[in-house]
Design brief:
The protein is mainly α. Helix content is about 80%, strand content about 0%. The protein is elongated.
Length: about 150
């Protein structure tokens, strides 16, 4: 897999995953599930910050690559596996906890849901943040590189 392929894959996983987590949280937990009112909103808002940050970085990357860009160098298999696995695992963990609340596994209620979401966000935050910074970098750094390429010599 190439650098561009890994970046695009992670960007798409996080964009789709962020939407799925948000929609599932609102509809399955709120409209059709066990949570009501502010519990739904608190839960969804707690579950989206880390995922939202990398999803936004991925969206900016995709929007910046409107025109065809070089593929970049091939990346190592371990690198590709880690940078794809962590955001995917974050999404799956959040959805599993949402499902546990939806089906009320062992009386899994709003309080347990918030505790687990907090744990998941804290655990994955450092890893996903490092992955996001490495793959997509700060926006200012990217803009500077784009400007440098566009200026005539």
């Amino acid at each position: 897999m190439t650098q561009r392929g890994v970046r695009t894959t992670v960007a798409l996983i996080t964009l789709v995953g962020h939407f799925v987590v948000f929609a599932f949280g609102l509809f399955a937990l709120g409209l059709m599930g066990p949570l009501f009112g502010s519990d739904v909103l608190q839960t969804v808002l707690m579950a989206t910050p880390v995922l939202g940050v990398i999803a936004m970085a991925g969206l900016k990357y995709i929007l910046a690559s409107e025109t065809e860009q070089p593929e970049g160098e091939r990346v190592g298999q371990a690198f590709a596996a880690v940078v794809i696995l962590f955001p995917t695992a974050l999404i799956l963990c959040i959805l599993v906890v949402f499902l546990a609340a939806y089906f009320q596994v062992n009386h899994f209620g709003p309080e347990q849901l918030r505790i687990y979401i907090g744990f998941i966000e804290t655990f994955f935050g450092v890893y996903v943040g490092a992955i996001s910074d490495h793959l997509f970098g700060p926006l200012d750094r990217k803009r500077g590189a784009v400007r440098a390429k566009r200026q005539p010599a």
